[in-house]
């Protein structure tokens, strides 16, 4: 069990750090998304002149927010789960079923990593968005369309972070099954802000 705890400690640290950064960027993305939607509502219904870029900007921010916030929810148990079945079983059997489900999730996430990588580097990633532009240089004299690969990178980053969290949860499950739950580092901020 000492080896598993030695592997878990740095993974816990890395996940805590990456997910904290991801939450900060995700909150910023939500704020930008709300601003883009409000701009679109005002221009569409007040000025009767819809802008082409706010919908795409909101979609871009939503994808990145999802990719960066979902791993935190997964780590903290914030996903919808029907766990009354595993809680009604003996502890070891319930842990074994949870471990099996985490291993199945890991297989799905590895496949999703391949799909995310192909979305970023493949044929679809070579195109650009229709109406979303960013400065092409520091003097703002040239503007380029946002590559679609930047949007699809949210899938790759999100699934990579979910995979790291899944591996951590597998290790935590194994350690807890052997009675080492009290020796594991605590997942910070397990309360989902009143989501219970």
From TrEMBL:
Family affiliation: Belongs to the TRAP transporter small permease family.
Entries under InterPro entries matching the protein: DctQ, TRAP_DctQ
Keyword vocabulary terms for this entry: Cell inner membrane, Cell membrane, Membrane, Transmembrane, Transmembrane helix, Transport
Keyword Transport: yes
Keyword flag Transmembrane: yes
Gene Ontology CC terms, in alphabetical order: plasma membrane
One GO MF term: transmembrane transporter activity
UniProt domain Tripartite ATP-independent periplasmic transporters DctQ component: residue ranges: 33-173
Compartment list: Cell inner membrane
Protein's recorded name: TRAP transporter small permease protein
Described function: Part of the tripartite ATP-independent periplasmic (TRAP) transport system.
GO BP, one annotated term: C4-dicarboxylate transport
TM segment ranges: 25-45, 57-74, 95-117, 150-171
Subunit comment: The complex comprises the extracytoplasmic solute receptor protein and the two transmembrane proteins.
Domain of life: Bacteria
Organism: Roseibium aggregatum
Biological classification of the source: Bacteria, Pseudomonadati, Pseudomonadota, Alphaproteobacteria, Hyphomicrobiales
């Amino acid at each position: 069990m000492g080896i598993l705890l030695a592997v878990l400690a740095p993974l816990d640290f890395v996940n805590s750090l990456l997910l904290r950064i991801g939450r900060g960027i995700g909150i910023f993305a939500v704020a930008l998304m709300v601003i883009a939607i409000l701009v679109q509502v005002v221009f569409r219904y007040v000025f009767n002149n819809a802008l082409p870029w706010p919908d795409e900007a909101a979609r871009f921010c939503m994808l990145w927010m999802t990719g960066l916030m979902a791993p935190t929810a997964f780590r903290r148990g914030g996903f919808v789960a029907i766990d009354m079945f595993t809680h009604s079983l003996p502890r070891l059997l319930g842990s074994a079923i949870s471990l099996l489900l985490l291993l199945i999730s890991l297989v799905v996430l590895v496949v999703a990593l391949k799909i995310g990588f192909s979305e970023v580097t493949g044929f679809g990633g070579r195109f650009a968005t229709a109406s979303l532009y960013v400065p092409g240089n520091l003097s703002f004299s040239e503007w380029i369309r946002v590559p679609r690969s930047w949007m699809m990178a949210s899938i790759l980053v999100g699934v990579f972070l979910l995979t790291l969290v899944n591996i951590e949860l597998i290790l935590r499950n194994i350690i807890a099954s052997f009675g080492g739950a009290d020796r594991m580092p605590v997942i910070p901020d397990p309360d989902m802000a009143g989501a219970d």
